[in-house]
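sorry for the late reply, my laptop died twice this morning and i had to redo everyting from scratch. anyway the thing you sent over, i finally got around to it. pasting the sequence first so we're on the same page, its 129 residues, then the predicted structure underneath. double check i copied it right bc i was rushing
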Amino acid sequence: MNRERFERIIASIEAHPENWNQRTFASWPELDKHRFNEEIDPTACGTTLCIAGWARAHELQDLGIPVTWNAMHPDESGIEHLAAAWLGITRREAYELFFTYQWTIEDLKAIAGGASIEAQAIIAEQRES
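ok and here's the structure:
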């Protein structure tokens, strides 16, 4: 895993916890089919991103590409595959990281500190049961 990139996601979530929602890759107010190329601010009120969404937004910003719906989802491969590649994680790690809904910021910090994504996902899921 690219820890520096993952720590950037954690910093974004800590700075804007109201914009973190593990149940949706990316969502923002008033999105409609006519505005898919309109640039959005990932920290704007009402905008939510999961870990994969934050990863994709950071990647686009790194590349100097405006964050738009179409840029977030450029093809049918899925945002999770693009985010996994940017983070340098396996498909299995991506599945656990992006589809575990019980994460806390402490869980993410443990992963950044070297904890296994799979092991931390088990802890997160058990905590919620």
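The helical segments are 3-15, 51-63, 69-72, 79-87, 91-99, 105-112, 117-128.
thats about all i looked at so far, will dig more tmrw
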